[in-house]
Amino acid sequence: MEQPFAINIGRQIGSGGKSVGEALARRLGVKLYDKELINLAAQESGLCPEIFEQADEKQSHNRLATLLGYLRAPFAGDGDTTANVLSSDALFKIQSDVIREVAAREPAIFVGRCADYILRDHPRSLNIFLTADDPDRVARICGRTGCSEAEARQTMAHGDARRADYYNYYSMRTWGAAATYDLCANTSVLGIEATAELILRFAARKLDLKTDL
């Protein structure tokens, strides 16, 4: 049986990466995993989804330590294992296991969360990075959240820095660097649907996909 394929999308804040992923998922008839990974990881571990949301694409620096008291009941005991369970590194491992399990059983599209690095040994994976021109990113963020242009630009700066820190920390690669990925694209050039079509054509060759293109 042919191994399922995985398309992994890294993206700048406001680049439309999830929208491109949704277009790809629709065209290929597969599932897209973004925030859904948080719920799957929570189910796998027995932890609350909120714990994973706190650590979602954030670099490990014991940022979850403040949640220790909240979680003591599910991990009752006098040992020091609770602190280990709560570490961002432990949560990353749980989420990584979930990504690998999904990729092993079904074709899928993963958005963010170091999926390209986690699936680096997967024989049928395609790694994409999406960016966009700043005005388009600002417009997309403002349209989604109702914030001001200044707030959108702050979201872009902080969000990209957070994603870069997370990715670089866990992968020891460089987030957004062309050499890290199979294909990089600017969604401002072609738009969401045409960018998805470009990726489909690329994927058809690299992953030997049967598409209607």
Question: Helices and strands in order, then pairings?
Answer:
Layout: E1 6-11, H1 17-28, E2 31-33, H2 36-45, H3 49-55, H4 68-71, H5 81-86, H6 88-105, E3 108-111, H7 115-118, E4 125-131, H8 134-145, H9 149-171, E5 183-186, H10 187-190, H11 192-206
Parallel strand pairs: 1-3, 1-4, 2-3, 4-5
Helix pairs in contact: 1-11, 2-3, 2-6, 8-9
Report on this structure.
- With 213 residues, the protein is of the alpha/beta class.
- It is 54% helix and 11% strand.
- The protein has 11 helices and 5 strands.
- It has a 5-stranded parallel β-sheet, sandwiched between helices.
- α2 crosses α3, α2 packs across α6 (88-105) and α8 (134-145) packs across α9 (149-171).
- The protein is globular.
- The chain starts with 5 loop residues before the first strand and ends in a 7-residue tail after the last helix.
- The model is unreliable at 61-85 (pLDDT under 50).
Overall pLDDT metric: 85
Q: Structural class, please?
A: alpha/beta
Oligomer: single chain
Low-confidence stretches at least 5 residues in length (pLDDT < 50)?
61-85
Given the structure, what is the number of helices?
A: 11
User: What is the string of helix and strand elements?
Assistant: EHEHHHHHEHEHHEHH
- Roughly how many Å apart are the termini? 24 Å
Shape: globular
- Helix percentage: 40-55%
The radius of gyration is 18 Å
| Total number of strands | 5
The largest β sheet comes out as:
5 strands, parallel
List the strand order in the largest sheet. 2-3-1-4-5
What share of residues are in beta strands? 5-15%
Features:
alpha/beta, 213 residues
